[in-house]
Structure formats: structure tokens, C-alpha cells
Amino acid sequence: MMKTRSATAWGLLLAALFVSPRSNAQFSTNALSAGIVVNRNAVPAEERGDSSNVWNYSVGNLSFLDPVYYLPAFLRNEALLKRYIRDRRFLQLRRMINDTVAVDIIFLRACDITDGDVSQALFVATLATFDHFRVGVKIPILGVLYFPLTFESDSVYKVRYAHLPRRVLPDSLGRRTNDRDKLQHFFGSAYLTYNLNSKEVARFLGDFIEWGEPLFIVGGEDDERDKYANRLGREFGMRLLEGEDVFPSDILWGK
Description:
Helix content is 52%, strand content 5%. It has helices at residues 7-17, 29-33, 73-86, 88-113, 118-128, 154-163, 182-196, 199-216, 224-241, 248-252, and strands at 134-139, 143-148. The chain has a two-stranded antiparallel ribbon with strand order 1-2.
């Protein structure tokens, strides 16, 4: 389960930090969540909570006693979304409604946490779906240095990793595949496209990172399926930019 390779995750994070987020677009999770039909009877009554939407369960309110409370906004939102994914209710939902809708729910929750800010929701979704614990970078003279991709402990990380949707691309549906790493490609590329207002610039950045992965990352490779996930993410970002009420699954599986 533990992995060290993810140049694209590392590269997309660095690229995203230098991209100015768009702050004028707001997203209503109420409008989108109407498109998700969840059988409430499939969830035990004591776990349904007070919300009419099972996906929108609470993972605890922040207080000044919680260390997460003092983090910068984007790290605080990332931590909250990771808590949501680690919750056993998310795993129950994923098993009940399949990975297709589970990816939609991650995005809905990101929008909910960021008060409908599309740019921040895409960024937080990227951070919260990293499937690697650390990355090994090849540095001349110094050799290989390892950098963390999450502030979670190893045991906490493993829980979140196990809960992430694993059938992400169309060719993985109905097969025993593990596409957990494709979520960071999808959301990261959507973030860059949305904020740069350009598929081409986002494509260049994604392809450049993929090209450099075998050169600078331990175990790295130029993966065509990573590029495919990047392309779908760019499409998602553009459709959001155009003001569409669109789910990730509308792009990933063409529903």
C-alpha cells in the first residue's frame, strides 16, 4: 500500500501554489447534490445524522482546542476533507453507491468545506486525494531526498488511502484495478485549467511533469493513463469555468 512515487502529485502541488486562484465563482452544493440519489435506508439510522443528504455528514466542529483550527485556510480545509474521507461512513457510502458517485461526493464535500469556492474546492480535493505518503527526489551530488506529501501519520494515511475510490478511469470500471493515483491528476489538472483559463497551458505543465518523472523521481515513469486523467481533468475545469453544474463523473464516465 505504501508508495513513494508521484512526481505529478508533487509537481501539480508546486504549480498550483504559484497559480492565483479565481475567487469570484461560487458553487451551490444543494443544486448538485440533488443529482445524487442515495438510499438512506441502506445506512443504519444511528449513522444518518440530521442532514437530508447522507453524504453531508459531520466529522466534528472545529474548536480552539483542535490543532487544525490554527492552520492556514487551505491546510485547514485539506485536513477537514481528509477527515471526511477517512470516516468509516465514507467507506460505507463508497461501497453502497460505487466509486463513480464517490468521486462526485468528494468534490461536493470540497465545495461545501470551501463555501462553494470552486477554485479552492479543486485545490483542496487535489491535496486530499494524494495517494502517496512521500516522494523520493533525485538531486545531483546529494543523492535521493524524500519529502512528505501529507502531514498524516503513517497509520492515519493508510486509512484514507484504503477509502479512496480506486476505479477512476473508464477502462477500470468492472475490473480489479487500482486507479487511486488518478484522482490527484484529475483534480490537479482541473484546478490549473480553471485558474489559468487555458487547457493548453495546463496540458503543457502536466506533460512536462510527466516527462521529468523518470528523470527526477525514484521509480518514476511517463504514464499514458496519467496523461489521460490529466486530459479529463482539463475538460472538467473548462466546463466549470463555463458555469456548468457538472459532476466529475460527467467527465470521467460520460454519464
